[in-house]
Prior knowledge:
Layout: E1 2-7, H1 12-23, E2 28-32, H2 35-49, E3 53-57, H3 65-75, E4 79-85, H4 100-128, E5 131-136, H5 149-169, E6 174-180, E7 184-185, H6 188-191, E8 204-205, H7 206-218, E9 223-225, H8 228-236, H9 242-259
Parallel strand pairs: 1-2, 1-4, 2-3, 4-5, 5-6, 6-9, 7-8
Helix pairs in contact: 1-2, 1-7, 3-4, 4-5
NADP nicotinamide-adenine-dinucleotide phosphate binds near residues 59, 181 and 184.
Amino acid sequence: MKVTLITGASSGIGEAFARRLAGEKHDLVLVARNEKKLHELCDELMLEHKIMAHYVPLDLTRLDADAVLFAETEKHRFEVDWLINNAGFGSYGDFAKLDRDHEIGMIDLNIRTLVALTHRYLPGMRARKAGKVINVSSAAGFQPIPFMSTYAATKAFVNSFSEAIAEENRPFGIQVLALCPGSTKTNFHAAARMDRVIQVKGQETAEQVVETAMRAIKAGRTRVVSGTVNWLVATAVNFVPNALITRAMARGLRGKYQEDQ
Ligand SMILES: NC(=O)c1ccc[n+]([C@@H]2O[C@H](COP(=O)([O-])OP(=O)(O)OC[C@H]3O[C@@H](n4cnc5c(N)ncnc54)[C@H](OP(=O)(O)O)[C@@H]3O)[C@@H](O)[C@H]2O)c1
């Protein structure tokens, strides 16, 4: 059975993808740690849309997470036709003072598991000469960001990696998209303990981000920034040296960060 596998489907952008694609009759495999939330969401989507929805409660920072998930989809003979690498988290603060395990866990989730899952599922897509990989990156990946240093760097990796493998896999009928949201109304900021520090105005909804992704998929794009203002900023930073950007950002954020101590 062909399925769409979505990581981080228990809330935010991942949940919005699950709801949208269930409405378009995709059968789903949903992954996150919150088993209760996944169970309830699968029950709801199966009832409402008459689709199959399977859930896998799993901590994707685990070093064997890709192997565990691949074994599960193989066991059920699921053919992963769309892979949506969405699970991710951020952190905010002075890098030297941040929790080391938390920073490394972020790299494990935002980069290592994303790469490993993509590598696991590409061969099947190539054999079938079809497939979509949506890697949820961020507008934060377009420039280094002081006080969000690890997070912004993980998303720079996701942008670079996704655009490169998009070209490698184009001849096999596979589309790879780096989806770059700006600030979006989800649990992300609370999870990163950022909500007390940065008051974000003009956030998009998770549904708007998913709409952007679906339009980009239809248009055959390999990278898309969600939201006009986010796109303008992401484009403008190409014309400014990183040293200027990081100094200006650090000036603004250092004050806020120090107030937060
Ligand atoms: N919101 C924004 O402003 C924004 C902007 C740009 C990019 N993004 C990106 O969008 C993606 C989705 O984030 P979101 O905004 O929708 O935030 P969210 O509401 O916090 O959702 C994050 C999802 O990832 C899952 N997750 C977190 N850690 C996990 C782990 N160790 N193992 C398995 N699943 C895990 C969470 O589920 P459990 O807690 O149940 O595990 C949840 O389903 C992330 O990659 C984020 O970097 C977000």
